[in-house]
Specification:
The chain is an alpha/beta fold. It has helices at residues 3-17, 20-29, 66-71, 73-78, 115-125, 143-159, 169-175; strands spanning 35-40, 56-62, 82-86, 100-106, 126-137, 179-187, 197-204.
Length: 205
């Protein structure tokens, strides 16, 4: 890991993921989580204030970056429910089959190298009556925007810590075996169109 990835990138991600348009999207999805929750790519803990403590039994926070877990320390300390960190990559979820009620993924699927394998792992650990809550940026429906997303993705990916700006989020979720209950989408105000097309909703086994 270079100096950029170790010292600068975590702070950049922390700042970007805490932007107002993104926090407003978190507030639409995270409060719906219940029971034993697995959050994929918990980062600096931006979702923690949005969980409903009355509905949370515990939170498994999967975050492989030591630097991001350090940035999350204050939010974790203030949580009104138990938080247990898991430090393996998103493709390797060290939980038993059908052991969680809710899986939460917010602005994470863009950075997981093998997102399809990760989603299949989420499906594996989800209970039969559980749900996946997602809020992710991805490929835009407008051809000119999508064209530039595909052009710029190879340049942006190393700068953004592996972030892909052109993933087809609903199709990716369904390819893993999920059935999408509902999905909404829009360009987030105040963000570049090539990075700001957002999908959010829920899916089930």
């Amino acid at each position: 890991m270079g100096l950029y990835e170790k010292y600068f990138l975590p702070k950049l991600i922390n700042c970007a993921c805490g932007a107002k348009p993104i926090m407003r999207q978190r507030a639409k999805v995270v409060p719906l989580a219940r029971g034993r929750i697995l959050e994929i790519g918990s980062g600096a803990g931006h979702n923690i204030p949005y969980y409903d403590p009355a509905q949370v039994e515990m939170l498994y926070a999967l975050e492989p970056s030591d630097e991001m877990r350090a940035l999350a320390a204050d939010r974790v300390a203030k949580a009104l429910f138990k938080v247990e960190f898991i430090d393996l990559p998103g493709e390797n979820i060290p939980l038993e089959d059908k052991s969680v009620d809710t899986v939460v993924t917010t602005f994470t699927l863009c950075t997981i190298p093998d997102a399809l394998t990760a989603l299949r792992g989420m499906l594996r650990v989800l209970r039969p009556d559980g749900q996946l809550l997602f809020c992710e940026h991805g490929i835009a429906p407008d051809a000119p925007v999508a064209k530039w997303q595909n052009r710029l993705n190879p340049i942006w990916k190393p700068i953004g810590g592996g972030c892909n700006i052109n993933r087809a989020i609903p199709r990716l979720i369904e390819s893993a075996g999920f059935q999408i209950n509902d999905v909404q989408s829009m360009y987030l105000p105040g963000t570049p169109r090539i990075m700001g097309y957002n999908y959010w909703g829920s899916a089930r086994r």
